[in-house]
Amino acid sequence: xxxxxxxxxxxxxxxxxxxxxxxxxxxxxxxxxxxxxxxxxxxxxxxxxxxxxxxxxxxxxxxxxxxxxxxxxxxxxxxxxxxxxxxxxxxxxxxxxxxxxxxxxxxxxxxxxxxxxxxxxxxxxxxxxxxxxxxxxxxxxxxxxxxxxxxxxxxxxxxxxxxxxxxxxxxxxxxxxxxxxxxxxxxxxxxxxxxxxxxxxxxxxxxxxxxxxxxxxxxxxxxxxxxxxxxxxxxxxxxxxxxxxxxxxxxxxxxxxxxxxxxxxxxxxxxxxxxxxxxxxxxxxxxxxxxxxxxxxxxxxxxxxxxxxxxxxxxxxxxxxxxxxxxxxxxxxxxxxxxxxxxxxxxxxxxxxxxxxxxxxxxxxxxxxxxxxxxxxxxxxxxxxxxxxxxxxxxxxxxxxxxxxxxxxxxxxxxxxxxxxxxxxxxxxxx
Length: 431
Hints:
By secondary structure, this protein is of the alpha/beta class. Helices cover about 30% and strands about 25% of the residues. It has three domains: about 1-180, Rossmann fold; about 210-350, CATH 3.30.1330.90; about 355-430, ACT domain (Alpha-Beta Plaits, 2-Layer Sandwich). The model has no long low-confidence stretch (mean pLDDT about 90).
């Protein structure tokens, strides 16, 4: 329902800017008062997005079409990443002082309740319009009412309330407020998606897979920031296990960035499921994966860090091997479509979408390698979807990461390894 929620926020913002609600009510009462309900344009205005998560990002993308300047406050988003999305990150004070429109998209917790309070509203422009379609209580409703009456705020769009159902808020008495009864997910499409999600959960349960919000699996109550990383972490675990050249002694799962503040135990289960699905023939589930680790004497650990230098959330699976070596694979989920990407393999920085069929070669960097790999794969009728080279330094150790449309035959893998003098070669098939 994130699309529905984002679209409602945009609708409330537009309705507030153009006085749609009071103008509609006046016309129904037989009044034709064009000048009274004159509004403002969005074009060339500054829109401040408080919370640049999945919904906040969707709102920003939609508002960019109106020719606005987008700024955002979110302590978990790196400025360089936001700049790629056309958004400039600022602190909350600057956002409050400079925004012509403010739209709130934060989760409700002890740190965000009352974030936009009376003191915050003293910092805004008197022409500002404020929208809260996230969670009730993040914007203090009494403080917002007082600011609207005093002329400190020009207008507001409100869909959520501190206590719901809410039918007697003083905000409802103001023409400068467009209010709706928590309609964020109230679309035909969102309800259909909810039904499909229930059906998928039943199917997952019958297949022995993790069911979000399950009560009989440790970490089964999945918080929203964690959900996009469940499948990613399992795939990272499978890739790391495939790359391991010797038996595994320990599995360490590291979660960095925004999701680290949530309950991420399920990501440890996901990683273990991925790791052991490569090692055992029997079916591996979220329930038996920890048991398989304990039975084999594999130590497990989970660590979190709220800081992630380059990614909103990064998950790393590190395997300690019995011969003293280690394997580390890291990934993230990026973009409005939650594209799963590998961003690190054993210290090599990459940016490769995870594919059903992948291959990795390590070798000594030298000219002509990419051409050799492409020629051999072409001769084997294997189509390359993507190829990236990462290296420690010119002429040093290098890594080729390949994504292809079909599994690479073993003789072809060996031929490439021989021709480029690869120190190691690994094929990963995730289908």
